[in-house]
TrEMBL record:
Residues 2-234 form the ABC transporter domain. PANTHER family: HIGH-AFFINITY BRANCHED-CHAIN AMINO ACID TRANSPORT ATP-BINDING PROTEIN LIVF. This is Leucine/isoleucine/valine transporter subunit ATP-binding component of ABC superfamily. Keywords: Amino-acid transport, ATP-binding, Nucleotide-binding, Transport. Belongs to the ABC transporter superfamily. PROSITE patterns: ABC_TRANSPORTER_1, ABC_TRANSPORTER_2. The gene is livF. One of its GO terms (biological process) is L-amino acid transport. One of its GO terms (molecular function) is ATP binding. It comes from Candidatus Defluviicoccus seviourii. It holds the Pfam family ABC_tran. The keyword ATP-binding applies.
Amino acid sequence: MLRIEGLHTFYGSIEALRGVDLEVSSGEIVALIGANGAGKSTLLMTICGQPHAARGQVRFGDDDITRWPTHEIIAAGIAQAPEGRRIFARMSVLENLLMGATSADPQHFESDLTRVFTLFPILKERRDQRGGTLSGGEQQMLAIARALMSRPRLLLLDEPSLGLAPMVVKQIFRVIQEINEQQRVTVFLVEQNAFHALRLAHRGYVLVNGRVTMTGTGRELLANPDIRAAYLEGGH
């Protein structure tokens, strides 16, 4: 579904991605782990066209989307719940969801609204509440729900557990699994919480200083002693 080949991305003179190769097949959950500054968020933003890659290629299905504008990438079936949630704080929950649905067929709006309210019942209770007054966990749920309202085939999740209490993290990861298994949405998950990410993922990649240094199944990476030392036993 998603194939990235030889991807280089720069911020000015700083090379953030240095020849990244990876792929995500339809129906998978694929995790990308790495330390702060490794380039994980840059990769997701490059997939979505902001910034564009300096070299290399991003393919989605049969299309080369490397130079497409962001709105066309979203319309093609990719949605992102960004790091930091970035909800519209002054808008209500319902208005945020309406914003997520702008690229989708309006005839599906009510059924899609029911779908996300089933995934996140608290959002139904808070539908008229301003997004900025929600708790951190509720804002993360809203960010994911807003992305789902565009009816994506591929959902990009950037640090969905960041800053959340352990019980909320477990809930978020349960919902990610449900989105994948029951709603047939492919998921590309960027996470610093390597344990939760790799336990959930079918496959994973490790990104270090803008380069993919290791790949394998989630189970294989969890068992790898280098991964355990760096990311699962107090490492960074």
